[in-house]
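INFO batch 0412 | record 1 of 1 | parsing
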Amino acid sequence: MKISETVLGVIDVQPDFLPGGPLAVPEGDKVLAPVNHLLGLGFAAAFATQDWHPPGHASFASAHPGRAPFETIPMPYGPQVLWPDHCVAGTPGAALAPGLDQRRLRAIIRKGMDKEIDSYSAFFENDRHTATGLAGYLATIGARGLALCGLALDYCVAWSAEDAARLGFSVTIIADACRAIALPGPDGDTLSAARARLAAAGVRFATVAALTA
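INFO prediction complete | emitting tokens
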């Protein structure tokens, strides 16, 4: 991967996913330093994403009486994990994290704005065909390679990487600039399952140190 020819994507580094937030990713705050370092390395461009949900979003457990966070229910677009209320549009928890260096971000993509559809990927809502506009933006700047970092590795970073690979991008995840939720599942935790899917999709993994060696 040549940094000067690669676009950096910073996925969902928002206060609600950091320690103390309602959907805190374990050690989520530990991504801030490596992400800021990456932003200073001279990537061709950089963008960030934000979960940006309306109140009462269908992915919130509170929208389903009798259901608890982290249960899974069927939705028209497939299985849906129910989350604590998080990243409600316009609230401080939905902002980009205060410690994130935003000076080099050329675009911000907001997702999950449809009240009835969750959105993990930076490219598509969870119905896998409603576009966020990111692919069009990347086409206008001639991007072919993407490096992704942020939160959470097994959900929004992974789904973004899979969609990017499906769209023909060369994709690398900067592993030590990510953290995962790692929920238990029938075939191992969600991080193990995501890594297997990513490997099958041809997504590569790297470290910050490897990029700067």
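INFO post-check: The first helix runs from residue 32 to 39.
INFO record closed
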